[in-house]
Amino acid sequence: MKKIITISRQFGACGTTIGRAVAEKLSYEFYNKAVVLNAQKDSNIDISDLVEFDEKVPMDFSFGESIFEFTNKKLSDRLFAAQSDVIKKMGEKGKCVIVGRNSNYILREFDDVLNVFIYANEEFRLAHMNEMHPEYTGENMLKRLKQVDKIREKYCKYYTKQEFTDCRNYDICIDVGSIGIDNAVELLYGLAVK
Amino acid sequence: MKKIITISRQFGACGTTIGRAVAEKLSYEFYNKAVVLNAQKDSNIDISDLVEFDEKVPMDFSFGESIFEFTNKKLSDRLFAAQSDVIKKMGEKGKCVIVGRNSNYILREFDDVLNVFIYANEEFRLAHMNEMHPEYTGENMLKRLKQVDKIREKYCKYYTKQEFTDCRNYDICIDVGSIGIDNAVELLYGLAVK
Lengths: 194, 194
Description:
Two copies of one chain form a homodimer. The N and C termini of chain A lie close together (5 Å). By secondary structure, chain A is α/β, with parallel strands linked by helices. In chain A, helix 1 (15-26) crosses helix 9 (181-192), helix 2 (34-41) crosses helix 4 (67-93) and helix 6 packs across helix 7 (138-160). A five-stranded parallel beta sheet of chain A has the order 2-3-1-4-5, sandwiched between helices. Chain A has nine helices and five strands, in the order βαβαααβαβααβαα. The A-B interface holds A 114, 117, 119, 121, 163, 165-168, 170-175, 178-179, 183, 187, 190-191, 194 and B 114, 117, 119, 121, 163, 165-168, 170-175, 178-179, 183, 187, 190-191, 194. Strand 5 (172-175) of chain A pairs antiparallel with strand 5 (172-175) of chain B.
């Protein structure tokens, strides 16, 4: 029986939908964005900075040399440390599904963890995003998709020294476009209860 | 229902064992090294060259500039082309499990294919290799493991322009050390018959 399931995922690949469904089937806690807010409670990061920063990450997270970027990097490091503490506390409690935030890496010393990666080709992800956000045009959405992909890859590489899409960082990787959401949920539930 | 299952795998990760078991459960044909020999029948490559080359690949496959390497590269290109033809013929027949030889890439235009990647950490793979080849010392085995990993990554990159361990090249990737051989077989069978 797995105590913790971490779900890393590409933008638009339904990782949250899958994670929530698996958590429900297992009667486990489900964590995603809430982690950020919880992190704030235990750290000295100002909530308004944090929310603003979290929004800005996908646009400006380039780790360059300018003072602006330096400030962002410092804030990002503090945020990562604060989130790591919160995720470890969640891990200690157990019985949870955690989506995103490099939780597979943060919990790498924990036992009974199932680390999952959910991905799909651009076509599948665009179709899903268009359904969720009909206000965007297709072109803007594709641009946004590529941007977020880049950011997540960079963020992962920076904090974990690992490639985001390298399967060796996970116990199982599922192309949800090919396998399907329901099959993915069923499959992960089956592995979690073994 | 999937007509073709391709299994790419790290050296020592039991990809062949898993592939054979899945083929048996599905009553599908199972192909691995035999592909090389079949390829020879339809090409003008001399079988003795081929066997010698196939043995040498893991040692000398460096694509450098020397005449020796140039000859190897030429032979390798012919071998890859011949194998691709054979694998496509197998794909056309369908109802088969094909292990290795970048068959996921070669059959990328085919329908009803399930592309699988099987991997595991060095510890698991070494334990498995030691069981199969007790004549090797642990140190030699680890050296060989790292060598073959490098060769497969290089070979994949050269012929497909893809990273061998990037999950986006496959429909599902399984860490067999974590998931287990029997669970992997059951899981793949379940996906194949859907």
